[in-house]
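Morning - S-adenosylmethionine inputs below, output right after.
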Amino acid sequence: MSDDGSAADAALPDGVERRTFGGRERLSTRGEPVYGEPVDSDGWRAWDAGRSKLGAMLELGMDTGLVGGESVLYLGAASGTTVSHVADFAGPTYAVEFAPRPVRDLVGVAEDRDNLFPLLKDARDPDSYAHVVEAGIDCLVMDVATRGQATVAVRNRQFLADDGRLLMAVKARSEDVTAEPDDVFDDVIAELDSAYELLETARLDRFHADHLGIVARPK
Ligand SMILES: C[S@@+](CC[C@H](N)C(=O)[O-])C[C@H]1O[C@@H](n2cnc3c(N)ncnc32)[C@H](O)[C@@H]1O
């Protein structure tokens, strides 16, 4: 496990750049603004790692395998803060969220992005969107604040290409508010083992308390 203060070292995907906003270098993507984020004169929008687990994973230099242009299934899209950045650099991006209120905002975000497809669905029930999501997805991104995060990852393995990637942020408190986060993470990793080979993990605490970032590939 890398420490949580490591400098960024892995390559960023095409369409994600470090640019200067207010004198500070930050990740950014190019697209319509969504959540009041700073935008520079070239249309690049700052990607706030403090509001995005995937942003934190990139900021910490995790090797996500993202290159830009890939197909993405994003579970736990909420109102679209992170998935809007993903759709800025990725190809077809399917965004699953089960709470109706944020999905209303997400639909608005998708109006400016014709590669973003919001799905009001429960990520624990992948059969309910299997008729919409294409097979052989390049990247499964997970940020579902729910108990049973590993089970959700295993159930959604069916969509991933054999050489695809799982990029997962595990929230310890969603599994058990009383347990030690490291114990929760060990249990999640053990359950993932039935379907995934672990490539990298890193604590995201610099940006998100008691979260673990995971990069894995299908077995
Ligand atoms: C931490 S928030 C996601 C934030 C978002 N990924 C972002 O960075 O902009 C977690 C989201 O997961 C959603 N969620 C929890 N369980 C879910 C499930 N079973 N299916 C779909 N969405 C779920 C919640 O409604 C919530 O919006």
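Note: The CA atoms of residues 202 and 213 lie 5 Å apart.

O.
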